Here is the input.
Amino acid sequence: MLRYVLSDSGHPTVKMAAPRSWALWSFCGCGWSRAVSGCRLPGLRSSSPRGPLGARLLSQEKEATETHFGFETVSEEEKGGKVYQVFESVAKKYDVMNDMMSLGIHRVWKDLLLWKMRPFPGTQLLDVAGGTGDIAFRFLNYVQAQHQRTQKRQLRAQQNLSWEEIARKYQNEEDSLGGSHVMVCDINKEMLKIGKQKARAQGYKAGLAWILGDAEELPFDDNKFDVYTIAFGIRNVTHIDQALQEAHRVLKPGGRFLCLEFSQVNNPLLSRLYDVYSFQVIPVLGEVIAGDWKSYQYLVESIRQFPSQEEFKEMIEDAGFQKVTYENLTSGIVAIHSGFKLYLR
Amino acid sequence: MATLLRRVLRPLCAFPGGPGPPAGVPFRAVSHGTGLLYPEHIPTSVLQKVLLAAGSAGMALYDPYRHDMVAVLGETTGRRTLKVLRDQMKRDPEGAQILQERPRISLSTLDMGKLRSLPEGSFGRAYLHFLDVNVASGRGMTRVSPDTRAPTRFVDDEELAYVIQRYREIHDMLHTLLGMPTNILGEIVVKWFEAVQTGLPMCVLSALFGPIRLSAQAGGVPRAQDPGSSVFSLLCGPTGAYNC
Here is the structure.
């Protein structure tokens, strides 16, 4: 079975797909369909088959498994490296391109994610694939504003304080965030670098930490965080189910999982316009503004490869989350999925 | 107007939904090894070429150091002119040989020793001097070398892709010939020359709009319409000897 793939140098080469991989696919019964380039794959899950205890299969069988990189077919090891290169290349212009491609609407989407989250002072947030810090900064702004409001209310309730006591209360407040903290975790050094630069430039210091880590294998202990967010990152993960399991692991019982991601448009007319815009305009924008056609071609293709709202909801439930819901934004161009960890596993 | 719109949109409707790629995805299906005409080829639709041309023109004006934008503008607007140039090359014996052998000019193919051995005042020595000045040191001007030419991506014909690549690679030799440095004024002068000689729309546009970026103190643009040796003979001719 001949397959055209892109080798590491970027040149198209031909690969023979190992016959073992076929047996693996038919055995696993996860609803795999062949990732022939150019075909739309609504049901493709890049999950590796699991044994009875949920353990991963041995690595020798993994080598033959293939997955999608946009509309291309690549091996699973290759995908991680290729995605890394994409984000390394786009990091500097990432924010500019987001504004240009979404005409600034991505800011509203991220604001809506925070409003849905409604964090209170003291919340421990883990923002995975949070590279340039958009969610983290919004979180810090939100809890700071909340904390100030709570403080004001408290002071107003205590009517008989003298001026000196009120002034002392304000001055003694060292922690303007009320104990809230956000860890920004990203696999890509360049994106983290840009995020740190932004934090410095915009004056975010307290309550913020930057960690280099892989969503499929988070460098954190179990039951650590109140909220886990992943905004526009999970579709780039090679094994989405592993990322979801890790999310479940690091959340405290009662913790919330929130995912902001591109999804399927439910309006047929808008869907056509969206496709035309995605495939005709966005790579051109990428070339003109960032000098990088291919990364943005990958971006729009990876959106098409991501499961639909219902399928992703099922994947989240499979990872152990309860009360999983989703909310469509902008007619389904983007969706926020939410789930809760209610039992200790 | 309606027919023009239909012509532009027709490639977009090539896949009317169903199991194939979504609408608006005309060429991606073939760009993974099966439909590429040359290694760096990115197939583009008419609409994409129009958007690229407009965008690259704007960006090149906004940021003159985006040489890749000038290159993209050339690729997306030059199809007809490239055909004319290619036919001219075919009619000339040396040109036809070049189209067949496809020599490339890069630091690895240049024989520096041979260039150094040439007499002072010859074209080869002058070119070597130009490279020494511009490749070795920046000196406030853009560092260039034969290796900084971006590969062709958006030309949908493999031979024409070579013609435009060749045109780019002799650009430095034109600098030498005209004695122009690699600052903005120098580049515009070379573009004027290329515009007159090749007629490529990108050169014409650069020559006409480039001076917008020139300050008043830089003075006017020197005459570049001196016939001298025509550019297409440079495409075809003497450079071949300095490459083997």
Remarks:
- The CA atoms of residues 152 and 165 of chain B lie 6 Å apart.
